[in-house]
UniProtKB/TrEMBL annotation:
Record protein name field: HPr family phosphocarrier protein
InterPro entries for this protein: HPr-like_sf (IPR035895)
Record-linked Gene3D superfamilies: HPr-like
Source organism per UniProt: Candidatus Limivivens intestinipullorum
Lineage of the species this protein comes from: Bacteria, Bacillati, Bacillota, Clostridia, Lachnospirales
Alphabetical list of SUPFAM superfamilies matching this protein: HPr-like (SSF55594)
Length: 76
């Protein structure tokens, strides 16, 4: 499993994020505290998208292509 902290600055970021992750076959989740949602769901992503402790979890270790496309949302 790959875990990466991310953040969104505006609602359009969430829409773009969901569009990106929907192009991949990986199981991808957004996690904030005890809340876990399907990252490919626009409703789920908006549900947790404003959280300060947001993390994307990809159920695969070989997902560098996806991570490159999500680089703008990664928190350093």
């Amino acid at each position: 499993m790959t875990k990466i902290p991310i953040s969104f600055h505006k609602p359009e970021d969430i829409i773009r994020f969901v569009d990106i992750v929907n192009h991949y076959d990986y199981t991808i989740q957004l996690v904030s505290g005890n809340s876990v949602v399907d990252a490919k769901s626009i409703i789920g992503a908006f549900t947790v998208g404003s959280a300060d402790d947001l993390e994307v979890q990809v159920q695969d270790r070989e997902c560098q292509d996806l991570l490159e496309n999500l680089a703008e949302y990664v928190c350093e």
